[in-house]
């Protein structure tokens, strides 16, 4: 039993106006119906995928994972409860706000609010239209994209997402900070997307390092780079390709300080043939830090 995908994320931001420009004019996502003071955005036919609420955290505050139906939701909740993790039934008011048929709430070991749900609202009568002309984002069974989280309590966090929510290890990249200091970045999948979740076993100023949105072509990655320049958004890592998911991408800084990855051409996992392997570099080429000649190797 596993979650199906990352269905939605929620961020808390100190500057909602800057986020609105960034989301719609730079990332090219579509404004959705607001939830009170919270701004929400679409990337496909689902009524919303990204929420940005006002607040000082400037970090991820919510991850919503979709399951197949009520039976699967109940089974996952029972598994969490048996493991000693508190699970709450969502009140009717929250179901209405999220636009889902069923939802249960819990916390991961790092304190991140996790929502397990089924039956999201789709707006097929109001098709997704990017305000900057993006043809679409890669979602469907692969969900919204991926998130990379800092996890100092890696053993408990790994157990939560794998043993309880059903994520499977895709591969590992050993990141060497110096000749004597290295750690393993762990990449996990729950559908054909190479990774929906990655865990870094280190403390960090924010829970999230970055989230990723996948577009349909290299041209759309290039147009996004031009919008980054046009709107004077800080480019954090130049265009490059990762060795594990093979994604061609760049990284930019969001108005909240964490990063977003925009990419294309990622490989997909076939459970029947996939092998877990280890890599020694974060990038096969490129992904140089802004203002540096050094890449992530």
Task: Explain the overall architecture.
The chain has 297 residues and is α+β, with helices and mostly antiparallel strands. It folds into 2 domains: 5-118, 2,3-Dihydroxybiphenyl 1,2-Dioxygenase, domain 1 (Roll); 140-286, 2,3-Dihydroxybiphenyl 1,2-Dioxygenase, domain 1, CATH 3.10.180. The chain is 19% helix and 34% strand. The protein contains 5 helices and 18 strands. It has helices at residues 16-27, 70-82, 92-98, 154-164, 218-230; strands at 5-13, 30-31, 39-42, 50-54, 59-66, 88-89, 102-107, 113-118, 146-150, 168-178, 181-189, 197-200, 208-214, 235-241, 248-253, 259-264, 277-279, 285-286. The strands form 2 sheets. It has a 10-stranded mixed sheet. Strands 2-3-4-1-5-8-7-6 form an 8-stranded mixed sheet. Strand 2 and strand 3 form a beta hairpin. The longest helix is centred in the N-terminal third of the chain and has 13 residues, at 70-82. The radius of gyration is 18 Å and the shape is globular. The protein starts with a strand and ends in an 11-residue tail after the last strand. The model has no long low-confidence stretch (mean pLDDT 96).
